[in-house]
Design brief:
Number of domains: 1
CATH architecture: Up-down Bundle
Helix content: over 70%
Largest sheet: none
């Protein structure tokens, strides 16, 4: 979880500093959103290549390579003299960061029995929720000491090195390797209907959490005229509930079954995302506070469904295909698209349309079935 925290911070640490990055490099809203697209491109490419590493190296070694590579790339980004350097460094950050998740998830699910996957995944999902809370708070703290986004990236690099040191010292799991990637296996996975449904759900979930988070400070300051320093505190407060709700989500998954839980969380995520654009005036702050509560709950359900569909031997392969597509769309295209809406003075409409698509997609959960052709039920109804 600590390594995942350091890894995930690389994708959100720039959001609270986005106004300052825009000023340093004279960027438009769309160009600022493109920085997250570049990160997502790198992350997606790293995820897709992860199977080649984990089939030759033990999962724990892949995790170490990922963490140290992220630290090096962040160091390069922190000293960026121009925009091209920053973009190239962020691409490297994403590439190394993408190597982590399939191996990290494989280690996680090997450590606990399937009946407790919901809870174990919930603990793992503390990492992004904690990142969302701490990133804006650290931004305000560092600003108070005259430190900017470059110091934040350098600090994140140090955090990654410390986390991998703790992992090597205290974790002995991860001696396994994944199945060797074969073109036939990729094609077989890509040809499955439930693969594309899962990829779409994950894209919407990442878009509703990371994508919305990336552009919310810019939206609140430039469109809703809220003070920049106050917005960071509001952003942090909005994510505190995720630290607790993720455990509730894990219990709901184990109780109701992943499909039923997924349907509920997707629908509520869509409704709350629409409030960011629909609520007038100061009421938008209510939307900012409630929107993240359901988006973060998706992941315990989503990964539990993925783990049930794909056996352990091919699970890293499935993750290395599902997640990169989702990250590219949700963490890259969605914030970039919101930035384009912002440049055309339609920021609020962008949030409304995103929420509407998420809400309507809840109907797709009825198409998810087990390999035997039966819809997934909770363990209490079998």
């Amino acid at each position: 979880m600590s390594i995942f925290f350091a890894n995930f911070m690389t994708r959100v640490v720039l959001a609270p500093f986005l106004l300052h990055v825009r000023e340093d490099f004279d960027l438009t809203k769309a160009q600022a959103g493109e920085l997250f697209l570049i990160l997502a491109l790198g992350y997606s490419a790293g995820l897709m290549c992860s199977g080649f590493f984990s089939s030759r190296l033990e999962h724990r070694r892949v995790i170490v390579v990922s963490a140290l590579g992220v630290a090096l790339a962040l160091g390069l980004a922190a000293i960026s003299p121009n925009l091209s350097w920053l973009r190239s460094s962020l691409l490297l950050v994403g590439l190394f960061g993408g190597l982590y998740f399939p191996s990290g998830f494989a280690v996680l699910t090997s450590m606990v029995p399937p009946t407790n996957w919901g809870k174990a995944i919930a603990i793992h999902e503390l990492a992004p929720n904690l990142s969302f809370v701490l990133a804006p708070l650290l931004a305000e703290l560092m600003s108070g000491f005259g430190l900017g986004w470059r110091s934040a990236l350098a600090g994140n690099a140090v955090l990654s090195i410390v986390a991998v040191g703790l992992f090597l010292r205290y974790c002995t799991a991860g001696r396994e390797k994944s199945a060797v990637p074969r073109p036939a296996a990729y094609l077989d996975t890509l040809g499955q209907r439930h693969f594309w449904i899962l990829a779409f759900f994950f894209a919407m979930a990442i878009g509703a959490t990371q994508g919305v988070y990336s552009q919310t400070p810019l939206y609140l300051v430039s469109v809703r005229d809220l003070p920049a320093d106050w917005v960071n505190y509001l952003l942090a407060a909005s994510r505190v509930s995720g630290l607790f709700l993720v455990f509730w989500a894990g219990m709901i998954v184990d109780r109701l079954g992943p499909i039923r839980a997924l349907r509920i969380f997707v629908a509520l995520t869509g409704i709350t995302t629409m409030t960011l654009g629909l609520l007038p005036g100061g009421w938008v702050m209510v939307g900012v506070l409630i929107q993240p509560t359901m988006g973060g709950c998706f992941f315990p359900a989503g990964f539990a469904v993925l783990s049930m569909i794909y056996p352990a031997a091919v699970r890293p392969l499935a993750i290395s295909l599902v997640v990169p597509m989702a990250v590219l769309a949700g963490g890259g295209l969605i914030p970039a698209g919101l930035g384009i809406f912002g440049d055309h003075d339609h920021f609020a409409l962008g949030f409304i349309l995103l929420g509407g698509v998420i809400l309507l997609s809840a109907a797709l959960t009825t198409a998810l079935k087990s390999p035997e052709g039966q819809p997934f039920l909770s363990k209490h109804s079998r």
